[in-house]
Amino acid sequence: MNILSIVIKNLKNFIIKHTVVFIIMFIALIISTITILYVVVKLDCLSDTVSAGDLSLNKIDLKNNECQLAIDDISDRLQSYYENNSSVNYVCGYLNSEEGYMGCFITDEKENLKKFSEQYKPMKGRFFSDDEIENGDEVMIIVGIGTELKSMTYDNTNFKVIGSYAPNNMANGYLTQKSLIKNNIIPTTYSIVFDKELSVQEIKECKKEHEKLFPEFKIETVMDDILENAPVMLDFENICLLLMVIAAIISCAYLYSFILQMRVNKIYIFKLCGASPGNLMKIFVSEMIALLIMQFGVAFIIFRVILINVLKKYDVAFYYGYSRIHVIIAFLIIFVLCLLIFIPVLFYYCKKNAIQIKQKMKG
User: Fold this and answer.
1) Is residue 225 in some structural domain?
2) What is the rounded distance in angstroms from the CA atom of residue 185 to the CA atom of residue 187?
3) pLDDT tens digits, residue range 43-66?
4) Each residue of 79-112: pLDDT tens digit?
5) Are 183 and 153 in contact (CB under 8 A)?
6) Other C-beta atoms within 10 Å of 136: how many?
7) In this structure, is residue 169 part of a structural domain?
8) Residues 173 and 249 in one domain
């Protein structure tokens, strides 16, 4: 009889003989495993300042800080990309100034400006005229940053405010593309905006794709910005999370050891049949691994199907989702540390002969 068949038979007999104990322990093991999965994901992407509602996963930013590509150097490539990707809503170039956040449409400028003018009415002033768009006059409209502004200055160029809007609680300003080109103003960021919110996996894949398409830019997403501004630190919350993991691991290892202690009689029978310590170690370690895989599989299904969908509504870390790395790390943590605690207990029993085990059973 091979080890696998022995393991299956032993586990089956143990479950039948100690059904209630097994169910209670298995539930405890599942809870411990879910705790470890929770902490691994949480610590990987911890943010105390930003809630899931603040995320906007519908755009990719091409940072222009190093390459300093002007609009007329990159507009054709961006327009071509836009025309060949139906999921892209528009591409904008953005400027950061002390007075506000200003941008201009890079793709289909006239069409996008027309949509804006048809959708929103000014609180004060008017929209761009066709001549101002065509000639690149130093004029702009502001959106939600204060109707009292008369003008805004960027790179020694003064832009006159001709209209004030406040739709959707936005806070920025719009310039014409030609006004930036004429005044040699280079956007600090080119933003590719999609027509729908992307999933975490989609935004990650999209970032990789854009790194290949636009290697001269530093590609960023909202997730990157949050991760950079929310590093994992050894604060009170993280210490509590680490303590949760330690408690969960100890409980897993203890429960495995307790199961072993309930089966001293089985070890005694194996010893009478001439089993060596090495063979006993293989059998019981294999049983532990089988139980470990069972508990981890059930815990992962519960975590994946139920808990993650609830947690991501309230916590940024879980809004990002999790990767296979999270699952592998959690499994390795449980596997390695449980073995470190379980094997000494197992070795203690396996090295004894049948007489010593019999005396232990009587004691």
Assistant:
1) no
2) 7
3) 665 444 444 444 567 889 999 877
4) 999 999 989 999 999 987 766 678 899 999 999 9
5) no
6) 16
7) yes
8) no
